[in-house]
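re: ur question from earlier - yeah i can do the single chain one, its not a big deal. heres the input i used so u can compare w yours
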Amino acid sequence: MASGQLNSDIRRALRTALGSRAAAERLDTLLSEKSGRLAGATITIGAEATNVRAITIQLLDEEGADLDHVASVTAFLFTTAAMTTLATNVGSAGGGMAIGTDGLLPYNLSTGGNSLPNVFQLVSEADGDIDLTWTDTGTHEVFLALLMPTGDFVVSASIQNQA
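and the output i got, formated as tokens:
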């Protein structure tokens, strides 16, 4: 089934359930309009290699498919998965979170006395990929949270290097 397009069996079921062909077509139109919009993400934390971890983000549409266009999300570093406190002064000097091979990290949105960014804007490549690099010579634990357009967050597993 093509993205945003309902197959004939589903159309017939909707027509029966909704009572009219017009209602089923309207629902199909609404689903088509939503097709391809940023709705979620997967975050994969790589193994530590000499104080560095690769982090891969795949942005997803409403159907859970990989996004097929450039999109932007706001990212936060928190000290807990509950997202109660922004991480401050974490990561190595000159390290912390940086862009990897895919995507852009054009804006540090952090304010205040933080020595390293804890709120930043990310831009994906045309296939919805973003690669980040986390550098930390300490053992700070952080969680990467991505703010979706719905207002929901997608939160990573713990990011913590060994001493």
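The chain has two domains: 1-35, 38-160. not sure if urs matches, ping me
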